[in-house]
Specification:
Elements (H helix, E strand, L loop, with lengths): L10 E6 L3 E9 L5 E10 L1 H4 L11 E12 L5 E17 L9 E20 L2 E18 L3 E20 L2 E20 L3 E4 L2 E4 L5 E23 L2 E12 L7 E9 L2
Antiparallel strand pairs: 1-2, 2-3, 3-4, 4-5, 5-6, 6-7, 7-8, 8-9, 9-12, 10-11, 12-13, 13-14
């Protein structure tokens, strides 16, 4: 949602269609310059595509957003926001050739993120900063005999500064993140290969839990030059560093725009 919220009065919008419905509300929050937005959406694919039409588990989707923006004037603009999304499905799996693979099958994908951002300006100078955290997961469960859950969790931070100097707008920023990659898997019966397909032998159990932490950072430099009214040229570059791969790729940037 790209709106910051209205400073006048409570307002809202309700949208409905054959595949999804959404509700969005925006309102002042009682402090001068402080506004809020809240929205939610629900998909209808699990209703529109009933099981008599498809043998595949039809997913249910929903997402939501809450955001507060505070325009302080002298202390810049602060913004806090949280967002979440999820889709999941369930189906009864039947496999006559491998009864061990039968059962209630469920899967879910989920994503959640929260962020705090600030931006301000004074004279020719501007600055911005942000901190955020996010978590994603993908989970599969088959009758309690097979379980798999994986997804990254990340904490991110950024700080930038810019200055207008004549026809030039120069900016620099640094950002960094720490990411944890996790895996949690459980097999009640170990799979083995037979007759070109995987079947369960039922001999033993396996539990695997792994976690890997990686760090990354970046330095970003740019100069946007107004060559003449309506014509801009931007030169810059980005240097990234990844601790896990011990690499530091460079990404140059060249861009030009012409107003028509």
């Amino acid at each position: 949602h790209t709106r910051d919220g209205t400073e006048g009065r409570l307002a809202g919008a309700l949208d409905a269609s054959l595949i999804a419905s959404s509700l969005a509300l925006e309102s002042p929050l009682g402090v001068p310059g402080l506004t809020g937005v809240a929205s939610a959406r629900r998909g209808y694919f699990d209703f529109v595509l009933p099981r008599r039409i498809t043998d595949v588990a039809v997913p249910r989707y929903d997402d939501w957003l809450a955001k507060a923006t505070w325009k302080t004037g002298t202390m810049g603009t602060w913004r806090a926001e949280v967002f979440g999304a999820r889709d999941d499905a369930a189906a009864d799996v039947k496999n006559p050739s491998s009864p061990a693979l039968e059962g209630r099958y469920t899967w879910e994908h989920a994503y959640r993120v929260g962020a705090l951002l600030w931006a301000g300006a004074s004279g020719d100078w501007s600055a911005d900063a942000a901190v955020a955290g996010q978590a994603a997961s993908s989970e599969i469960d088959l009758a309690g005999d097979y379980f798999y859950n994986t997804g990254p969790e990340e904490v991110y931070a950024r700080a930038g500064v810019g200055r207008i100097a004549g026809p030039h707008r120069v900016s620099a920023a640094v950002e960094g993140a720490v990411t944890r990659y996790r895996l949690d898997a459980y097999f009640a019966r170990l799979p083995s290969e037979g007759q070109g397909a995987y079947v369960f032998t039922g001999l033993t159990k396996l539990r695997a839990t792994e976690s890997v932490i990686g760090e990354r950072g970046a330095l970003i430099l740019a100069d946007r030059w107004t060559f003449r009214p309506g014509t801009e040229v931007e030169l810059g570059g980005r240097a990234d560093g990844y601790a896990l791969s011990r690499s530091a790729p460079l990404s140059p940037r060249v861009a030009a725009s012409q107003a028509l």
